Amino acid sequence: MHVALLANTAWMEEEMAIFRHLVVGLIDEQVRVAQVVPTGIAPENLSAFGDWVSWRDSRWSYMRRWCLSRRATRLNELGVDVVHALDGRLWEGALRLALKINAPAILTSGSALDVAVASRLAGKLRTQRVAIAASTQPLGEIIRQRVNGACMVKVVRAGVHIPDEASRRNGGDRTLSAVISGTGRFDLDYQALFEALRLVIKDEPSAQFFLDGLSSDQHPLWQAARRYGLLRNLSMVPRWLQRRELLLGADMLIHPQALHRARGLTLQAMAHGLPVLARADPWLDYLEHNRTAWVVDAPEANAWYDLIRRVVDRPEEGRRIGEQARQWIHERHRAAQQIAVTLELYREVEGQSLKFPQTR
């Protein structure tokens, strides 16, 4: 089997670690892999054991479809027989590409935005060999309803590496630090959190908070931080591939908004036993209040303040919620589990008999 993994720039910036686990895991299972990635991705970020096919990404959907379809000849030459789109923004391009090379298509869904796309493409899904891989159970259930039998829908949870005890963060007495990861666009959610941070900094003047935003322009967020008098305690994290892996040494990860999308950053933090503080998000089944994370139901400054103080004042509770989250990841989100379920899906959509090793 030879699989083409299709990725776009925005997804690669977020999920480089998951991409690497997927490539290496598939190759380890004797699957040939073509890494179809945007131009500009440095070779050191890709596996040397898989083929590498570049394409020109675009903010315009029709351009993405066109640029991907131009890689059909190359994928035919490589002998690709399964096309796997790793982001909902690539679904239409992947379907067109799969049709050109007469291959089945796997469409990964990690965002609530994919629900509308699945509804719109339901007619096309009936005419091709297609399966949708939903990253969470809620996504899978809603998409299954929307496609109404047009194609197979299966939950394939993203997999992450779980560090051993020796490589995990040690904690100890040090300056309070936290990563704040959201869109990077100031709104009521950020407003509530900034009000809470102002109170925290009164208690902990040396506390440091690192803003990690999905938006390329975080200047409005910087302006808001200045209005709240937070600049001495805030740092903006630049946008570059793999930056998030460097942020897991903080005391906590804070998601101020419900983004309605699965994120490898959150799973990696949980795997490291990092306490996660997040807005409630019905699309994410891995954020369970008091089990895997501490969840805020509404943008309320006092709620954020109380949770941050809980991590600071009762570190044993932070360690407990972190360990519970780590156990959750071990049971449901290991990289090996993602590979095993992905292989099953490939076999099902191809209609092949079992010819791979049994799942771990």
In short:
The chain has helices at 9-28, 61-69, 72-78, 91-100, 113-127, 137-147, 188-203, 219-227, 264-271, 301-313, 315-332, 335-350; strands at residues 2-6, 32-38, 51-55, 82-85, 105-109, 130-134, 152-155, 177-182, 208-213, 234-236, 252-255, 276-279, 294-296. The chain is of the alpha/beta class.
What does it look like?
By secondary structure, this protein is an alpha/beta fold. It folds into two domains: 2-159 and 334-350, Glycogen Phosphorylase B (Rossmann fold, 3-Layer(aba) Sandwich), CATH 3.40.50; 165-332, Glycogen Phosphorylase B (Rossmann fold, 3-Layer(aba) Sandwich), CATH 3.40.50.2000. It is 42% helix and 17% strand. The protein has a seven-stranded parallel beta sheet, sandwiched between helices. α2 (61-69) packs parallel to α4 (91-100), α7 packs across α10 (301-313) and α10 crosses α11 (315-332). The protein is elongated, with a radius of gyration of 21 Å.
CATH class of the largest domain: Alpha Beta
Low-confidence stretches: 352-360
Count of individual helical segments: 12
Order of helices and strands: EHEEHHEHEHEHEEHEHEEHEEHHH
CATH topology-level fold name of the largest domain: Rossmann fold
Rg is 21 Å
- Ends: how far apart? 19 Å
Helical fraction: 40-55%
Q: CATH homologous superfamily name of the largest domain?
A: Glycogen Phosphorylase B
**Overall pLDDT score:** 91
The 3D shape can be described as elongated
- The total number of structural domains is 2
| Strand percentage | 15-25%
Number of E-state strands: 13
CATH architecture of the largest domain, please? 3-Layer(aba) Sandwich
Order of strands in the sheet with the most strands?
A: 3-2-1-4-5-6-7
The largest β sheet comes out as: 7 strands, parallel
Helix/strand/pairing category? alpha/beta
